Amino acid sequence: MKIIQLVHESLQALKINILRSSLTITGIVVGIFAVTAMLALGEGLSANILDRFNSFSTGDVTVSGDITYQDFEWIQNQTYVENTIASQTLSGVSTIAEGESFNPTLSTYIGNYESVVNPDIISGELFDFNNINLNEKVAIIDEGFLEKVSEDTGIDISNGSITLNGTRFSIIAIVEGGNTGFGRRSDGNIIIPYASAIGSLTNTSQFSSIAVDLVDQEYYEIAAQHILESLNSSRYVDKDSSDYFSVNSAQDAIENAQETTAMLSLFLGIIGAITLFVGGIGTMNMMLTTVTERTKEIGLRKAIGARNRDILYQILVESIVLTLIGGAIGIILAYTGSAIANKLLEDNNTIQVIMSWRVVFLAVGVSIFVGLIFGYYPARSASKLQPADALRAD
Q1: CB of 99 within 8 A of CB of 159?
Q2: pLDDT for residue 394
Q3: Burial of 217 (C-beta count, 10 Å sphere; 0-12/13-18/19+)
Q4: What is the pLDDT of residue 182?
């Protein structure tokens, strides 16, 4: 039998029992909607997590530990290194702006800051991050700190100053940023010159981490291993020791994040699949009822020459058509719902629903799969009926 003919007969059969077909389709609609919505939400959360991670990660390789300026210079001079930046986070610093106290993240950097971090400058000019002796009382702030001060004081400090541990620092530039976590707005970030921090804002001259951009990213594992072994050798400890230093690559962290987001998407998909399973049971129940009601028709078809596979295909196609109709409606509802959700949550940086073509194709595939799985047993039962027994059935 031609597929077009099978589909036509399937639609005619569904029309005969329109109420029962509608109720069964509703179950599939709910199931496909749940699966599609959960997968789209998983895609959105995965993209958000990876975007957040990529925005926080800096460099191809990150070295952490008690790092001296000599360590930084040695790393900077390696042939496989393109750019480096050493950083130190300053804790316990009193931050005052327009008479109000704030709690931003204070940092200082040495190295190729603009090349590694690639900041988006809103206004002003950055100071020279390569000048280790620069001790001017200047500061770079981000949007987060600027907005926080404006919210609390009602004053725009773009061209103003801040007081750090009693010392006044002039604001010379504003850069984009200021979010932390998943969309939460912190008190922002402040960057000051390295020499200006030593002695007045921190008692140590060491760095906490170094971000390294490699000439060839493919060799990040070899570069990371060489850096770790060399730094450990300078401290006269075992080459593979992690007591003093740790060296991690951004690629490893990204792969771990991708594995986590994949598990999240799988978990959300399973939640939706449970609902779809209920709809599939409804489909099987309807097809079994259909076979029972059409026993004589099936017997007559077989008596005039219909083969077992013809009956099998007919019932299977009816099941697939049923689930495809429900799947199409469920996908349309999920697409509409995602558009509405994204519109309502457009100011929220945490939740986003991504209705990609991958999700749509997967939903269609699931619809067909459900039709096949839950329609096979009724179809096989119908194909095995003997013509004489079927014709005598009540």
Answers
A1: no
A2: 53
A3: middle
A4: 42
Residues 49 and 104 in one domain: no
What is the pLDDT, as a whole number, of residue 172? 96
Say yes or no: 25 and 75 in one domain.
no
In the block, tokens 């014709």 appear at 391
pLDDT at 350 over 70: no
Tell me, what DSSP letter sits at residue 198? B
Query: Which is more confidently placed, 99 or 364?
Result: 99
pLDDT value, residue 190: 95
pLDDT in tens, 251-279: 676 677 777 777 777 777 777 777 777 77
Which residues span the domain enclosing 324?
3-53+256-392
Q: How much helix, strand and coil, in percent to the nearest 5, is found in the chain? A: 55, 20, 25
Q: Do residues 92 and 196 both lie within one domain?
A: yes
Alpha carbons within 13 angstroms on the beta-carbon side of residue 341 total 18
- How many domains does the chain contain in total? 2
Residue 277 placed within a domain: yes
Give me the residue label for tokens 């300078």. 234
Residues with Cβ within 8 Å of residue 268, at least 6 apart in sequence: 38, 39, 41, 42
What does the block give as tokens for 297? 């028709």
The pLDDT value given to residue 181 = 45
> Whole-model pTM?
0.60
Q: For tokens 């060399």, what's the residue?
A: 230
Distance CA 162, CA 164 (A): 7
118 sits in the region (left: phi over 0; alpha: psi -120 to 50; else beta) called: left
CA–chain centroid gap for 105, Å, is 26
Residues in the chain: 394
Q: Rounded to a whole number, what is the largest CA-CA distance in the chain?
A: 102
Amino acid, res. 73? E
